[in-house]
Amino acid sequence: MVAIGASAAEGLTDIKALLAALPANLAAVVLVALHRPSDRISHLKEVVSRGSLMPVLIADDGDRFRAGCCYIGEPDADLSLAEKSDVRLVEGAGDKHRNRTVDILFDSIAAYAKGRGIGVVLSGSLDDGSPKAQV
To answer: Does residue 97 carry a catalytic annotation?
Structure first.
């Protein structure tokens, strides 16, 4: 499990560059958390898919993750890993978790991926993704 966290436009640029550099047959699941407003339509999937060699999917609650795929959540559904290595979405939070989306993802990776998880913070100016995650 490779968990990637970033903020805003700079983070989006970094995510696109990283996904473009990853091989299509990567033997890992890539999970992306990007700070963005929850009250707007998101085109994140389309934007990051353009340069990615691997499929970019919007995660559905309860889905099983597949290696070689990149997963994102919807703006109002924070992406995380559940106990059985499947998708868990923290939904309906509005902007409540807006600046904690990376923490939510990294905490779930630390709890459930054990030694099979990597956390990557690409950008940001606050502490989301850094204070207590133990990936």
So the answer is: no
